[in-house]
Amino acid sequence: MSPSTGGRLAELARLFLKLGTIGFGGPAAHIALMEDEVVRRRGWLTRERFLDLLGATNLIPGPNSTEMAIHVGHQRAGWRGLVVAGVSFILPAFLIVLACAWAYGRYGTLPVAEGLLRGVKPVIIAIVLQALAGLGRAATRTRLLAALGLLALAAAAAGIHELAVIFGAGGLAAVVAWARSAEASRGAHGIAVLPLGAAALASTAGAAPFSLSSLFLVFLKIGSVLFGSGYVLLAFLRSDLVVRRGWLSEGQLLDAVAVGQVTPGPVFTTATFVGYVLGGVPGAVLATVGIFLPAFVFVALSGPLVPRIRRSPVAGAFLDGVNVASIALMALVTAQLARAAIVDGWTAAIAVVAALLLLRFRASPAWLVPAAGLLGLVLPR
């Protein structure tokens, strides 16, 4: 390993350990934090390249923000970087959720986090808005893409499934490019290569008594086929673990999802909590590996295709449409989060001050997030 490669791996480990520790707010917030670090501050990727990778993550199953970390690692330091970035991003959340699961098992209650989150959530909104401003300008560089972005936003707000919005925007952009391009017949073949089927990795563990191997297979299947948000994860977990197998109660499942939502890092570390409740530390490790392993596989398979797709006029247009739809979905999620995060004068003030510090003084989220969390603990109710 060359010294330069070793230095890049160390950089990736430090960055994604930090982001995994301060990454409250779900995938939109995580992606905003990554954009700030790898595009604005470090210049590892151009904004256009970052958008292409974001679009690619929306076309494969699994946790989007973790897949973005894996993509960035691969871009920065090859296959070793792919592993180091992904593991570093997951590890802090795994340890934090494991500690919460231990406390839950010992005391039967969840750690109190309301005050901490009261301060953190408004800052997360400001961070995401900062990222949306930059990414939105890059994604809507033509009138057609701007119109597609508005159409995607309206469709998502009307309740149309996010996959239909993403593929619909990509398809419309590709059709327009096909109509304009004399090379359409050659370029169109690129459209179908990026979305990767998950059937090959999907594994159903039929109804059976609990075992660690069956626990691993359940989470491997979920990680292989799950598109969408933490609410989709809730539906999968309920179907597999509560209804079909009876391993968890409804209350335990809701507690597990709550821990995944209120702790930093990937929401999919809900699997860590469930695994610990069912099988102790070995169960926590196996459930976590099972749900995240497909993300590494899918990124490894799809990542090398992105530059080839970009070189094809029609497939590149498809990716442009996917990118602008992804930004529209981020904007809608941010609006929904803002309604839950900004609930009084104090939280509104935190959001405004955070936005000012980020936009005017380029303050680092690495200290804004913990500072706001501490402030939330002492604010009057």
Task: Characterize this entry briefly.
The chain is mostly helical and 381 residues long.
Please explain how this structure is put together.
It is a single chain. With 381 residues, the chain is mainly alpha-helical. The chain has one domain (3-196, 300-378). The protein is built from 16 helices and no strands. It has helices at residues 3-22, 27-41, 47-57, 64-107, 114-139, 143-157, 162-180, 184-187, 212-225, 230-244, 250-262, 270-302, 305-311, 313-341, 345-361, 365-378. It is globular, with a radius of gyration of 21 Å. The N and C termini lie far apart (54 Å). Mean pLDDT is 83; it is low at 183-207.
Q: What summary fits the major beta sheet?
A: none
Class computed from helices, strands and strand pairing? mainly alpha
Shape: globular
Mean pLDDT across every amino acid position: 83
